[in-house]
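Task 17 of the worksheet. Students: predict the tertiary structure of the chain below and write it out as structure tokens. Keep your answer in the requested format; marks are given for formatting as well as content.
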Amino acid sequence: MPENENEILIPDHLQYNGGSNLQVGDTITLQIGKRKTKTGEELFQSNPYITKEDAQDSDVPYEEEYIEVETTKTYTIVGIIERPNFEIFSAPGYTLISTGTLDETKPMDISLLFSNPKDTYNIEADIIRNLQLEYTDIQENQELLRWQGVSKYSSDMNVVTYLAIIVILILMFTSIFVIRNSFRISVTERTKQLGMLASIGATSKQIKKSVLYEGFILGAIAIPLGIIVGIIAIAIVISVVSTMLATTSFLEEGVTLQFTVSIPAIIVTVIASIITIYLSCISPARKAAKIAPIDAIRESNDVKIKNKTVKTSRFTKKMMGIEGEIAVKNLKRSRKKYRTTIFSIFLSIVLFLSMSAFIQYGFIVTSANYQEMNYNLLVRCPNVNDQEALQYYAQVRKMDGIERASIVKRLTAVLPEEFANDEIHTEHIFIYAVGDEEYSKYLQELGLNKDKVKDKAILCDDYIRYEYDETGINVKRTQMQSTNVEEGEMLTFQVYDEEQETYVSHQIEIAKRTSKLPTGIQNQFTPTLIVSDSTIENLDYYVDSMYIEAKDASALEEKIATLEGSNKSNIMNLQKEQEEKNTLVIIISIFLYGFIIVISLIGITNVFNTITTNMALREKEFAILKSIGMTTKEFKRMIRYESILYGLKALLFGIPVGIVLSYIIYSVIAQAFDTGYQIPWIQIGICIIFVFAIIFITMRYSMNKTKKQNIIETIRKENI
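Model answer:
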């Protein structure tokens, strides 16, 4: 860092963009002053440098400018830094950093870092009030504050709080049921043992205490083990994320994410776990205490059949045969076990659908702020006409190392009022062509046939609207479509014709509506049409830039710079920025997908545990059926029918409840970011497939175990 006012830092892009060969230790003499126009207006870094040619091409007023030199100063270069993030890409100059005495007569920017980020907005309000500033005079680093868990908008924090409550309640309820189910199964398996204890004098109170003590022992082992494994897992995740972030500018050099163990969090976890375990085993403990010794030893308490309990319809027998009829009777005669299994599957469905909604809307919200960058090199053609620009880009395209490239032709058209969303009043629409090669790849990704849509357009019109409440502080973001045209309909737009000096209307059919954009095109929240090169040739377009996804951006940059008429000032290497943005998207995906994987494993474990145990408890029943002549084929068919009945009934109840919970989660998120509710059809499809897959796999696993049993020994053992 500079230690006095005669030392200075220079940015690295002064070398690769500015063509400078300055190194550390060199001296540089600068003329210091003000940048002004001939009319006397002072210009800053936010005012791009515009040449006469630029002004003519874009119809921007041209004003000649100059530097009003106030002094000359010589500096020694003591370091080279990366391009500062506050220097915009259209800035006309390079940012050099030195030190020295502040001149209080000149404008200055002051950056503040508070020890407690939560104080940021309160201190900001005090500064504005005491110094009589405008709110526009102060700018918060919203990106950093979001990482620190601080938001200016209470609606955002409310959403986080409500979502946390909903997710925790769902997970706690699921955990209680899973653990309770495990204890219930344990008690059922040991019914005969408990009955024997009762027969030799064990009181109901002692049996109840025995079950509760079992829960205590399991908790004493599982809670510390769970905390240790959880801490290790979080430490690993933090380590991986920190390593990934180290390659980006989100963390300064030498700064890493610090993993710390929160004692209050551990205490809350222990208390919640104890409550969960107690609530889980109290019901099985009471049930065990009420079992009559004789009934327990004979195991006659689990199945109680009354008149008409197992009656089935003729339709059942006709449709599913004798195996299906037996399957239905099995479920009817043992309703408690049946309901427990159904509820286990039902709970897994609800858990998956509700948490999938949380993940789905999480991705929608984060993608609105963090989008993947699909190019790492931007090439702008030197000041030439469109034809020469296309020839220049064609030379670049022939170079090795290019994976994908868009040669962008574009124009801005007027969107008639009848095609614009009434709530947004969009007046313009962007029209892009990206070159035949990229256009073909883009259509292939969308699953479209090029021959069928080459004269049509792809519409991307996602839009985010910000609505402030009466306080002007809280904001609600709404994601919507900025046009009201649908797929298959004709859209009209107007392009200015210089020869006729008027706007000419054109029509084009919308082949598809999508959020996906081709290489190089970014969502600017203005409706965008992607068309073929042959279509845009009929319009008054201009050649924009070339966007490249290269294997080695730096190596390709060097090659392009050797082309005639090229220099590094017209090539922008965005490799680092691409890596940063895409790394952040990956990190978000790790957390969200990791969460849904854990949730899915909980559901699968619950279903597997319930079904396998219930099948194990029916060993005698299966042995009796086989002893009276049921063949292996008939037995398998019966089990398949049972599996189908389990799945259908669980889906019948689970899907509606899951949809309701997904809507509740959407409603909470919509308080801050309304994306429009979408019925989770894909998740429902996944649920149906996985429910039947898990049930059939589990049933098959259990059936394979019954193959090894000896029919006579099984029946004898159960009657001893």
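Marker's comment: DSSP finds 21 helices and 17 strands in the chain. The mean pLDDT is 77.
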